[in-house]
Amino acid sequence: MNIDIGSKIRSLRKSMDLNIAQLAEKTGLSTGLISQIERNMVVPSVTSLWKISNSLNVSIGYFFNEENKVNISPIVKKHSRKRIITSNSNAIYESLTPDMNRKIEFLYITIEPGDSSTNGLVAHEGEECGIVIKGRLLIKSEKEDYILEEGDSIYLDSSIGHRYVNIGDEPCISIWAMTPPSF
Fold it and tell me: Residue 34's domain is classified under what CATH number?
């Protein structure tokens, strides 16, 4: 699936009469990085895309919406899941909802042994709840760390910095619901 995130960012930025330097100031990202993202030379990290989407007053899902889908089926077949691969992690996020424009985000996440969801702790608006289907997952947070085994679930206040780390010796598969959506 090819999604032109860069053009969507550029179009939104220009519609708000912002230049790259102004968007950089609002996001805390460098002008060079924003320029490279807009030209699709680099894939933004989840954190960078989140900062950009907040500054442009859209959800991250806006960048993944496919236009001209009039009758979207409520069913998402396993082989048809939209994959979200970030540049700052080897975690694979698969959307379990038919499109990215929902009030709740539902994700199937696969993290290889030793890998994590992001390099540092991430905080964002909302709340999330997850369950480990396979493997072991360390939830690192600003307040406390938690270890989840197969079948264990957790609720998190997303405004508290957190990340997920696979501490097992096999791929960790977990399912997460987040509101409002982060992607």
Answer: 1.10.260.40
